[in-house]
Amino acid sequence: DALSQAELNDRYRCFVSGGAEDVRSALRLLRRREMIRIIFRDLTRKADLFQTTAELSHLADFCVQTALDDCYQAAVRRYGPPLSPDGIPEQLIVLGMGKLGAYELNLSSDIDLIVLYDPERVDYHGRRSLQARFSKLTQDLVYMLQERTADGYVFRTDLRLRPDPGATPLAIGVEAALVYYEARGQNWERAAMIKAKASAG
Q: How far is residue 2's CA from residue 64's CA, in Å, rounded to a whole number?
């Protein structure tokens, strides 16, 4: 049957406790095992097309969130946490776009993400700018997901659906994104938001 996020987490924890070298390795082992299970359910007609693409999409969401958590904790250890005014650690807002956003991911799909943050909710006083820090965190996230290792990769990741990708950083402030979509965004860029969903963060 289709697995819940809690069940995916249990399986992931088995790889972590079972000798996987690190989160990077555990995610790749989980992805490999789950792909086999999902493909088997598809081939034996225990799942229809909509169930198969939804399961792949839920797997991608879990992997993105788990990778983000690890990258965020690594950044906290290096730089200290960016905090919201009420003291809660503030993460990125990761939107799943395209096939991922619509739960239509297939076996060969990459995942399209837009990464945002709200500077008004972060009380940060580090030496690097908040934008630079969150852009580096986004870069680490993408690297963790798509780096090819001996265990393979998790998901190929594409950030080019973000506003003006040739000129903007990897992580964009929410207000700057809204201004772009209202003033300069193309119709297809605004229409793409129909399939957007919160994927992680």
A: 19
